[in-house]
Amino acid sequence: MLRPHMGLLLEATQPTSPASTHGSEVAGLLQVLLALVLVSGLAYVVLRALAKRGFGRLPAHGPLEVEHQLPLDRQSGLLVVRVEGRRLLLSTHRDAPPRLLTELEPSSSAAGPRT
């Protein structure tokens, strides 16, 4: 005679049919896919709303303004920047921080920044 708890043990060790396992895997995959679509959609909507309010953008005429940019090769270049009314000539290189070359005279042209 089987005891009640032994019957549960036997049921737990019974192999499940491949069809029922496959169905639960597909259902689990669909749940994960649905969650991914919902989270991605929510992130898209939130980021679009923040972008419309200017989140993540630098001000057009902030404390630093690039007036001119001259690439010298693929890794280096020269920049003329305006910082707090001063015009600076900087050298740039991909593997090094920008380096101040000299301070330039204030520009008399009121034309906007060129890149």
Description:
The chain is an alpha+beta fold and 115 residues long. It folds into two domains: 4-52; 64-104. 39% of the residues lie in helices and 29% in strands. It is built from two helices and four strands, in the order H-H-E-E-E-E. It has helices at 4-13, 18-52; strands at residues 64-71, 76-83, 86-93, 96-104. A four-stranded antiparallel β-sheet has the order 1-2-3-4, with no helix packed on it. Strand 1 (64-71) and strand 2 (76-83) form a beta hairpin. The radius of gyration is 32 Å and the shape is elongated. The model has no long low-confidence stretch (mean pLDDT 80).
Low-pLDDT segments: none
In order across it, which strands form the biggest sheet?
1-2-3-4
As for the number of domains, it is 2
- Estimated structural class: alpha+beta
**What pattern of helices and strands is seen along the backbone?**
HHEEEE
Largest sheet: 4 strands, antiparallel
Number of helices: 2
Report the mean per-residue pLDDT as an integer. Answer: 80
Quickly list its features:
four-stranded antiparallel sheet, 115 residues
Concise structural overview:
Helix content is 39%, strand content 29%. It is α+β, with helices and mostly antiparallel strands and 115 residues long. A four-stranded antiparallel beta sheet has the order 1-2-3-4, with no helix packed on it.
